[in-house]
Amino acid sequence: MSYPSSKRRLRPARAVAVLLSAAMAAGAGLGALTSPAQAAYSPVGAPGTIQTMAGYTFNYKQGGYGPEETLATQSQLFNPRGLAFASDGSVFITDALNNRVRKIDPAGNIHLVAGAGTQNCGTATNHCFSGDGGDAKLAEMWEPHGVAVDSVGNVYIADSRNCVIRMVDHSSGLISTVAGTGAQNATNHNSLPTAGDPDGPAKNIALDTPKSIFISKVANVDTLWVTDSGNNEIRKIDVGNPGGPAAFTMTRVVGNNQSKRFGGDNGPARDAQLRHAEGVWVANDGTIYLSDGGNNLVRKVDTSPQHIITTIAGDQTAAANNASTGSITQLPGDSSGDGGPAISAHLDGPRGITGDNQGNLYVAEENGARVRRINLNTGVIDTIAGDGTSSPIGQQAIKGENGPALGTEFNFIHDIEINPADGSLWIADSKDNRVRAIVDPAAAPGAVVPTGGGVTPTTQPQGGGNVTPVPGKSGYWMLGNDGKVYAFGDASAASFGDASALIPGGAKAVHIEPTPTAKGYWINDDRGGVYGFGDAAKLGGVDPSALLSGEKVTSLSATPSGAGYWVFTTRGRVFTFGDAQKFGDLSNLALNGAIQSSIPTPSGKGYFMVGSDGGVFAFGDAAFLGSMGSTKLNQPVQSLVPTRTNKGYWLVASDGGIFAFGDAGFKGSMGATKLNKPVVGMVRYGDGYLMVGADGGIFNFSSKPFAGSLGSNPPARPIVFAATLDS
User: Fold this and answer.
1) Which of these, 349, 343, 381, lies nearest to 365 by C-alpha position?
2) Nearest to 191 by CA among 255, 236, 252, 142
3) Per-residue b/e over 241-262, b at no fewer than 16 CB within 10 Å?
4) Which terminus of the chain, N or C, has less C-beta within 10 A?
5) Residues 83-109: pLDDT tens digits?
């Protein structure tokens, strides 16, 4: 029983091993970009793991805007399309239907770069174009698509519906138009072409709906590559020209604006025909790779003086036949051919394209809802992300949002880019209103994913499945809200005292947490008091004056060393003690339900929180795999329990209902049984889980033995939690 949902997920920044010091310039500009890749906001997990890096569903709705100056996973996007990385580790995003460009810094926080966000751009009187010469944040844009950053930090934007390329100066933050005339038909906004399709001054040549853009070096000069989609061409602009924007020249590199829609293979690239070029990537050796989207092909331009174009993936015959008829209808495609030669495979709406300069080329299929990988050495193609099913537009839940990339869905992928700092593959999952990233795509498991869905692995990921629990004793402690501890099974010989005489008047015990050695435990109360017993480190608690009005402490989680712990509150705030590190909290988020409990990951480099509405919040290396936050529940959720692999978790509601995610196997529930008292908590036990009721009833769903309960003799004060010897 699994109920995948994606109401929320919060992912603070992670630093990679190559993290260097970042130095950002002060002032109105974008900051100095003076060193190689300095830092990375990185996904975590095994190769092939996908993770949301920006965007979330707020109040059950996708496609909003903002806020700025917060974690990117706490800010909404509306149709992200373009991605680009700067040398300081920042990633730039075109937030197309918000008519803005935004930036995620190396700490994972999002900021506005350009765009006033003006809406209703397609009216006769408003084309949403203004602001040249002024602050980029006040400028109007119309569905910006591609974005790129040059070696000094200038940001280039394909202001797509305005049919121009604009630049945000790195030092001043001022915006200007550097390419395209922007001339359009006043009635239908169609671009007015430049007669003769010339090369020359960049601002004197018309562009038609420019989309993907990419920066590379040509003869050591920064060069901007532009997919001039409406003109069916690829162009380049010498943006490193020492004469500045006024001296920029634009040159047609691939394609021409003939009416023919496909042709020219094995000849000069300028004589070839494209049909809606969607993406371009230029390798370090100068080879050009492009997605010929309307023809469902990937094509390559070599580095010879003749610049010969060839097709390297897709159904050339279908493209040629369609072109011969003069048809202007969409060329149908499919995604067959995984595991075989790319030249024999089919593609379905190729759009974003990028490579790693290590022999791997990645292609995003807009209609095929997947990312495919082409080994440029062997020519073999496979799928590394997407199960071949398009997620419904604007849905609250994205299947497999954080987990194995082959198990997820996409909805109109646009740009994809390799992060040079850590090698991760970033994805503009446009109509899911997310930016997502895949860990180590070169080593990711590949698969045969047929058209319409279904996955057959061709290489196997590491790990997976629940493991046999480590040998240990059976038994558990229960905690009453008066601080009394009740021990059962082997825990009876490991009772270290209780907090009944220590908790101040008006406070209530809320949690018991064993030490890693099981030779002690902590008890904490709802006002912040922490009481250590046995070998539990006595590191103090939360000063009650630090709590907000109505805020209470809910739980305590120990670090793997036992030399520290986190204390969590109903507002999702986190207090650290000892060697516990903070990976983020919910202090700036309006919650639909109070935080009920928390638990760390096995590494101690992350933690989960769960709200009463079933919302799951993952921080650090905790993998978000779904939640119940968008589902109406019979009773509130009480606890989250990860599997021992950290690749899944269970949620339990107060009626004993169980919701399983990832590799968490459904072991059973009490959801169909009338309980004397509600379930107040659940903990890991053996290969499953153990629930405890407020009357001290125990419900065991594991291979470990039942060791007793208080259900037939309830205590005077209610039970609030339990802990096991092998938690």
Assistant:
1) 349
2) 142
3) beeebeebbbbbbbbbbeeebb
4) N
5) 999 999 999 999 999 999 999 999 999
